[in-house]
């Protein structure tokens, strides 16, 4: 058990943290020199293309690959069965992985449309695709299970026979006195909620360029989608190479939104082919590959939720019953529900929680990470229920929230599941939002415009944004976990060259568009009083690399700040000794100021970092014996606040402790004839602790809000009853364009975390974690005269029209105007 | 394959001749044959605009344009936007406004904005929004892009000609 209370940096004015400097990584992106994975060209490089299943569930009876193998320019055709000889199964963190074996290509049967069955390698992508068209596969279609509720029936066809059921995991957790709270409640509101699956859909797909040297046995994989470097030994096992002969080298990712958190299949296939052929192989997903088989479709949940409430609006307890459609494989187990449990009472003093989850397998693409990692769905469910309670009690949505917020003097606040909220001022955030939104004005306008027959809606929601997970959330599901992993570190090496120039070496695939280089440069600038634009930020491969977890779960800024702080302290400790020796004073009489050490009380007697560095590089034998040549230090920064779950799992411990909060207030107009939504105002106020680069955080908030608008109104991977994916292009899977998103008015509150360096919290996911709840509330509010309630997302125009018609059929409200 | 054609075109102001398969996509020709990696591939079906380049001053989707269709044309890619190692005012404005996050849509977005400002040097915010709706950006929510394009229009009107800062220059 470890709780580290990081002492905030001593009170001094921050020079670089908190400044909206221009991003240090931008010049390369602005000039077309981004260095993305598809930009890599290696001598003799071949190109691969994967053949994918057109069936959702089918036995592979026969595959004929002779014709494509004879095609000039084709280097190899590898079937799924051959791949199973070349590779071990994929790294799988789910329950009972031996019973739902996941391979880089399907072997005996396919389990979803788009699952790979063979791969072709050729001199060009064009030739590879030509050859792919010549592969003949005979399939025997099997009964398809596309509906998660039907999948739970004992008679349902099995996605994995060895599992004996399509329910891969189920458990009910009880935290606190749930039955008492429900028995004592004045009112219990219940609803059935449906959140359909969508996904990150970055504009750059997943790709890898693998290069194998048969002479050394070294397999190098350039890749845009693998973090968790301390788990890459599992990929080495898949590829049957010694872990110390695998080097995964990160490239900038052209967006991830979770989907490149650990997307291992492409790297595995490329690695397998490079090893087989002894030549570099590039495999880049096309858009159809990515949409049908990217490993990272988002949550797909069916909820029955009950909320126990008192007449005065006090929220007492909440019960979730969730069925989650995980698709054909369950690579991360129910980690997405760990995220939910991290903030399962929202920003409220809800005293008890019952959380029942059933993770169901179906013939769809597997679930993974999508900005929020499942907690965004819980935010939506909680806020839907709070709004329902307010409606039932006749309370204003602002008032019911005000009454139930955890108060500023209650932090750190332990929620019933065991996780902690480190700090916050939720009412403060909401008040800023209401002011920016001009809430009272819009309530009056709503009233006035309703008389004109217009449907104006105002949504007010307040949700949590957990950040910086620890490893326990991937195993606390089990009474006897396979491995009680506790480490999820981030690392950095800081090197000061003989001229005082600083290089920061990072070890994860940290750049997803999240300004990792800029954040690092600012934090280094803060430690050493140097201009961030002078800091050189480089990325190490995993071989010889320090352990690093990457940006998923809004971890990066908090964790790398800890690593930089630690490495800088080591460098300064050595520099202090050197400076003391050279200046002939006791090292303890020196103080760090303005980029160097100076003698306390005699500020003219000083040495700059450059002067000290030069001493360490060139004058070792003039320095004390313990001083080694050079000025470099590394820090492996472990999660600063993790506690273990209780044995009976009545308390899951602290596993996601740096918790931001936000309030979104959209003012929208709904056209009841078309179901279309237009924006009159959109306010987003976030508290992500201390901000490192406010403009950068605003970009994340606005971009996340746009992303959340997609989730709330447009984006859905639609499967039909036969498991056919109907949305395999951007003509059907609708990402918001500039015309579908409003101008967002952003506000900030900074409530520092007491547990992190500088008080930083993560902030990369919050936009998307708020918007669905906010727009659902606004839609309800707009259509309240018609008696509509938004219970299913995305709220497409068709669904909104359907709700209006259903409400009419119930006799709820009449259309005016 | 005997199905090859000679094409002659201008790319970023330089004449260029090549022999290509009839099916070769312009984006592959630019990226693989000419090494101009700034044109990115996003959706490969002409929706997202990531592969946008200008052909004779007009934006096209290079992922659904054949290289042979570019015969005789003048192509501008993002590599041709900056001159003499200095950023174009649009690139400067994108940098100043943090109008990019992952950078993947940025070359296409810059070229689309460049086309807009050629046609309409003083657009309103609404006109910028409508114009860039041709190109998807998954990161930014577009707001800072709109701000950057409006700012670039002001800079261009004030006489900026691409003589911006050196890319590595430090500025807060």
Written description of the protein model:
- The complex is a heterodimer of chains A (817) and B (172).
- Chain A is of the alpha+beta class.
- Among the domains of chain A are: 2-33 and 489-637, Aldehyde oxidase/xanthine dehydrogenase, molybdopterin binding domain (Aldehyde Oxidoreductase, domain 4); 405-469 and 656-817, Aldehyde oxidase/xanthine dehydrogenase, molybdopterin binding domain (Aldehyde Oxidoreductase, domain 4).
- Helix content of chain A is 28%, strand content 24%.
- Chain A has a seven-stranded mixed beta sheet, with helices on both faces.
- In chain A, β21 and β22 (502-506) form a beta hairpin.
- Chain A is globular.
- Chain A starts with a strand and ends in an 8-residue tail after the last helix.
- The relative contact order of chain A is 0.13.
- Mean pLDDT of chain A is 96; it is low at 1-10.
- Chain B folds into two domains: 4-80, Roll (Ubiquitin-like (UB roll)); 89-157, DNA polymerase, domain 1 (Orthogonal Bundle).
- A five-stranded mixed beta sheet of chain B has the order 2-1-5-3-4, with helices on one face.
- Chain B is α+β, with helices and mostly antiparallel strands.
- Chain B contains five helices and five strands; from the N terminus they run ββαβββαααα.
- Chain B has helices at residues 26-33, 89-96, 106-119, 125-132, 143-157, and strands at 4-11, 14-21, 52-55, 58-61, 74-76.
- In chain B, α4 crosses α5.
- Chain B is 31% helix and 16% strand.
- At the A-B interface, α1 and α18 of A face α1, α2, α3, α4 and α5 of B.
Please outline the helices and strands.
The complex is a heterodimer of chains A (817) and B (172).
Chain A lengths: L1 E2 L22 H5 L15 E7 L5 E7 L1 H5 L3 E6 H7 L22 E2 L5 E7 L2 H8 L3 E6 L6 H4 L15 E9 L2 H7 L2 E9 L11 E7 L4 E6 L8 H8 L6 E5 L14 H13 L3 E4 L2 H7 L7 E9 L5 E13 L7 H8 L9 E10 L13 H19 L3 H8 L8 E2 L5 E2 L4 H12 L1 H13 L3 E4 L2 E7 L22 E7 L5 E5 L9 H13 L7 E4 L16 H28 L6 E4 L2 E4 L2 E7 H10 L13 E6 L3 E2 L15 E13 L6 E11 L6 H21 L30 E4 L17 H17 L9 E2 L3 H13 L8
Parallel strand pairs in A: 2-13, 9-32, 11-12, 15-16, 22-23, 30-31
Antiparallel strand pairs in A: 1-28, 2-6, 3-5, 3-7, 4-6, 8-16, 9-14, 10-11, 10-13, 14-15, 17-18, 19-29, 20-29, 21-22, 21-27, 24-25, 25-26, 29-30
Helix pairs in contact in A: 10-11, 11-19, 15-16, 18-19
Chain B lengths: L3 E8 L2 E8 L4 H8 L18 E4 L2 E4 L12 E3 L12 H8 L9 H14 L5 H8 L10 H15 L15
Parallel strand pairs in B: 1-5
Antiparallel strand pairs in B: 1-2, 3-4, 3-5
């Amino acid at each position: 058990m470890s709780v580290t209370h990081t002492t905030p940096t001593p009170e001094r004015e921050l020079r670089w943290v908190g400044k909206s400097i221009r991003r240090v990584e931008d010049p390369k992106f602005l000039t077309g020199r981004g260095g993305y994975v598809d930009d890599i060209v290696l001598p003799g490089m071949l190109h691969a293309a994967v053949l994918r299943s057109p069936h959702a569930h089918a036995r592979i009876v026969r595959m004929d690959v002779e014709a494509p193998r004879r095609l000039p320019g084709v280097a190899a055709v590898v079937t799924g069965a051959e791949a199973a000889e070349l590779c071990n199964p994929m790294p799988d963190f789910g329950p009972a992985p031996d019973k739902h074996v996941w391979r880089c290509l399907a072997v005996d049967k396919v389990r979803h449309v788009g699952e790979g069955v063979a791969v072709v390698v050729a001199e060009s992508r064009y030739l590879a695709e030509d050859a792919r068209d010549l592969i003949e596969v005979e399939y025997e279609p099997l009964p398809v299970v596309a509906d998660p509720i039907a999948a739970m029936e004992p008679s349902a066809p099995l996605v994995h026979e060895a599992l004996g059921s399509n329910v891969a995991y189920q458990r009910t957790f009880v935290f606190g006195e749930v039955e008492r709270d429900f028995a004592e409640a004045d009112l219990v509101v219940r609803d059935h909620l449906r959140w359909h699956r969508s996904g990150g859909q970055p504009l750059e797909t997943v790709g890898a360029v693998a290069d194998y040297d048969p002479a050394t046995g070294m397999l190098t994989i350039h890749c845009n989608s693998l973090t968790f470097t301390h788990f890459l030994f599992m990929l080495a096992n898949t590829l049957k190479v010694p872990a110390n002969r695998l080097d995964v080298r990160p490239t900038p990712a052209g967006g991830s939104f979770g989907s490149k958190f650990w997307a291992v299949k492409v790297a595995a296939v490329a690695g397998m082919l490079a090893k087989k052929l002894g030549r570099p192989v590039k495999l880049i997903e096309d858009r159809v590959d990515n949409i049908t088989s990217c490993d990272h479709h988002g949550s797909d949940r069916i909820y029955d939720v009950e909320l126990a409430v008192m007449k005065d609006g006090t929220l007492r307890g909440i019960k979730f019953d969730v069925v989650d459609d995980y698709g054909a494989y369950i690579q991360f187990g129910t980690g997405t529900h760990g995220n939910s449990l991290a903030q399962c009472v929202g920003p409220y003093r809800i005293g008890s929680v019952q959380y029942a989850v059933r993770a169901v397998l179906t013939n769809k693409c597997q679930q993974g990470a999508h900005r929020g990692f499942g907690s965004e769905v819980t935010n939506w469910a909680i806020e839907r229920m709070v709004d329902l309670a307010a409606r039932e009690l006749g309370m204003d949505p602002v008032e019911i929230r005000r009454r139930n917020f955890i108060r500023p003097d209650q932090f750190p606040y332990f929620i019933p599941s065991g996780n902690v909220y480190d700090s916050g001022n939720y009412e403060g955030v909401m008040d800023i939002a209401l002011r920016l939104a001009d809430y009272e004005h819009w309530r009056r306008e709503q009233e006035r415009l309703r008389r004109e027959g217009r449907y104006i809606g105002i949504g007010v929601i307040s949700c949590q944004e957990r950040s910086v997970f620890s490893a326990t959330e991937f195993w606390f599901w089990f009474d006897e976990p396979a491995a009680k992993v506790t480490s999820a570190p981030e690392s950095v090496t800081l090197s000061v060259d003989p001229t005082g120039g600083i290089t920061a070496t990072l070890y994860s695939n940290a750049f997803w568009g999240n300004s990792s280089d800029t954040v690092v440069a600012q934090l280094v600038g803060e430690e050493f009083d140097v201009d961030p634009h002078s800091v050189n930020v480089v990325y190490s491969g995993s071989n010889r690399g320090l352990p690093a977890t990457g940006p998923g779960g809004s971890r990066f800024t908090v964790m790398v700040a800890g690593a930089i702080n630690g490495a800088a302290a080591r460098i300064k400790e050595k520099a202090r000794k050197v400076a003391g020796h050279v200046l002939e004073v006791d090292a303890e009489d020196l103080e760090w100021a303005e980029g160097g050490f100076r003698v306390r009380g005699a500020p003219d007697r000083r040495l700059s970092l450059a002067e000290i560095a030069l001493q360490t590089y060139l004058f070792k034998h003039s320095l004390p014996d313990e001083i080694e040549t050079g000025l470099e230090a590394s820090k492996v920064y472990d999660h600063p606040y993790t506690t273990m779950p209780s044995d009976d799992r009545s308390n899951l411990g602290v596993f996601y402790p740096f918790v931001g909060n936000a309030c979104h207030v959209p003012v929208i107009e709904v056209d009841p004839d078309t179901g279309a939504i237009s924006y009159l105002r959109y306010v987003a106020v976030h508290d992500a602790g201390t901000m490192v680069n406010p403009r950068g955080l605003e970009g994340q908030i606005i971009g996340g809000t746009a992303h959340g608008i997609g989730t709330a109104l447009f984006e859905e991977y639609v499967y039909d009853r036969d498991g056919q994916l109907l949305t395999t292009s951007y003509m059907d899977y609708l990402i918001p364009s500039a015309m579908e998103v409003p101008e967002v008015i952003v506000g900030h509150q900074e409530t520092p975390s007491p547990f992190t360096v500088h008080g930083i919290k993560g902030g990369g996911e919050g936009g998307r974690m708020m918007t669905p709840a906010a727009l659902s509330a606004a839609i309800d509010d707009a259509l309240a005269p018609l008696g509509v309630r938004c219970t299913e997302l995305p709220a497409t125009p068709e669904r909104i029209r359907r709700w209006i018609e259903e409400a009419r059929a119930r006799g709820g409200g009449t259309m005016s105007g | 394959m005997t199905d090859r054609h000679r094409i002659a075109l201008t790319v970023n102001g330089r004449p260029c001749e090549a022999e290509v398969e009839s099916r070769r996509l312009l984006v592959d020709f630019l990226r693989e044959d000419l090494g101009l990696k700034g044109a990115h591939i996003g959706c490969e079906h002409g929706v997202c605009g990531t592969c946008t380049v200008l052909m004779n001053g007009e934006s096209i989707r290079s992922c659904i344009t054949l290289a042979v269709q570019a015969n005789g044309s003048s192509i501008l890619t993002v590599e041709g936007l900056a001159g003499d190692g200095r950023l174009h005012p649009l690139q400067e404005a994108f940098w100043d406004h943090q109008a990019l996050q992952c950078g993947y849509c940025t070359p296409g977005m810059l070229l689309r904005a460049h086309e807009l400002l050629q046609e309409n040097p003083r657009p309103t915010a609404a006109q910028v929004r409508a114009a860039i709706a041709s190109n998807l950006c998954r990161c930014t929510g577009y707001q800072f892009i709109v701000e950057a394009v409006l700012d670039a229009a002001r800079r261009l009107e004030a006489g900026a000609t691409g003589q911006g800062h050196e890319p590595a220059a430090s500025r807060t």
